[in-house]
Fold this protein.
Amino acid sequence: MKSFWNFTVSCLAIGGVLSLPCAAQQAEAPASTSTNQQTPTTPSGQEASDDAKPGAREGKTKLEKETGTINDRILTVMPNYGTVENAETLPPISSGQKYRLATAGVLDYFTFPFIGTLAAIDQANNAPKSWGQGWGAYGKRYGASFADNGIGTYMTTAIFPSMLHEDPRYYQLGHGSFSHRTFYTLSRLVVARTDSGHSRFNYSELIGNAAAAGLSNVYHAPEDRTLGRNLGTYGMLDMWDGVSNLMKEFWPDIHRKMQHKHDPDKTLLP
């Protein structure tokens, strides 16, 4: 899983670099933008503000409307399920909706080529060696990577949040300095919002990923069923969740920066 670890670290670095200029850009936003960011308390109120912001899609899916989330794809392709923008509080979502959010992420079209790339890297590195080479070995590596990702997502988004009554949605902070927002983003790995709107230790994230790492022994190669590999898988799942949060937090800023770059004439409009 070294390739996945390296990939996530690269994503973290890229996200940080791209977000730095966007933090400054935010301070230059017109007054009307700050008005739009007043926090509504219902999904319907949020839906109206989502339609008004730059880059918003036409309409929302049924799942987005039901959960008060928006999937404005990061870099136009990466899934962004479970993200709440411009809202501090929303009604709790049901266990069924938590499972649907998890399923949407696991079966998103972006997941399949992404997992395929990870499997190809492991194939090139012949990891694990006992699986050898050939299409059969590639299939095993693909299945293991897909299972790691899928089980981790279900554990932290659906299974444990349903059992422990925790809210798996990511609530964007959307204001403050880059360092403050980064700290908030990473702190969500250990701080959870409950269905009742309170904050507490994020049992779903930490116990869920630990359970996923333990279950991975069932399908990983025998030589990979070690404490070291399990800790590596656990760390990889936590790291990916942290990188995902960073992308969800700063993508609106990056998107605005990209739009400003591609359409400079907008600054001349009254």
